[in-house]
Amino acid sequence: MTFGTIITLAEDLVEISVPDAAAAQRVADRLRPYPDIKEVVPALSSVAVMFAPLAQSPDSIKDIIARLISTGGEAAPRSAQEITLPVTYGGKAGPDLETVAETLGLSTADVIKTHTDQWLNVDMMGFTPGFAYLSGLPWSVPRLATPRQSVAAGSVGVAGHRSGIYSLGGPGGWPVIGRTSLALFDASLDPPFLLAPGSRVRFQAVNP
User: Fold this and answer.
1) Which one of 78, 150, 152, 165 is most buried, by most CB atoms within 10 A?
2) Long-range pairs for 82-85 at CB < 8 Å and ≥24 separation?
3) Whole-prediction pTM value?
């Protein structure tokens, strides 16, 4: 399995560079079962690994990680969680839909059709808890010139070639084109967020 450098970020945290989000998922799947590794967080081009510092030093865990990744060939692909999200597009739920359509030179109907026509992959989570970055859109949209102080939970945005989903309410700079009524966060569950890296999402337009 291909990977790059492994650097120490803290006494219990190292980071592995990888070529892309798909490689990050494969590396994370390979490392999660190891007992001294406490948490693995894949991103777009890296994987953060938190380990038990009393059991392993940063140098020893880097050797272990390199061995786990390098031996045994490619990790077996796991079945991706597939989720269909009902979305109300435009209006109060999607205040930026018309602006996005104008930017792309499309009708709002064409924007919705493209956004709902395909499965998108959750590549990583951040910048706020539960925010999902999804890849697979064929067009690119700029971020808002002035970020909003408050974006409702369930809002669906677009920026660059990605779509983003706000699992929790909070500030955000992505143009919002719709909102899902499906609960994306439940504190009583483990994990509490519906979406996770590796999930596949398809949006389904619904009437307001």
Assistant:
1) 165
2) 82/119, 82/199, 82/200, 82/201, 82/202, 83/194, 83/195, 83/199, 83/200, 83/201, 83/202, 84/201, 84/202, 84/203, 84/204, 85/156, 85/165, 85/180, 85/182, 85/201, 85/202, 85/203, 85/204
3) 0.73
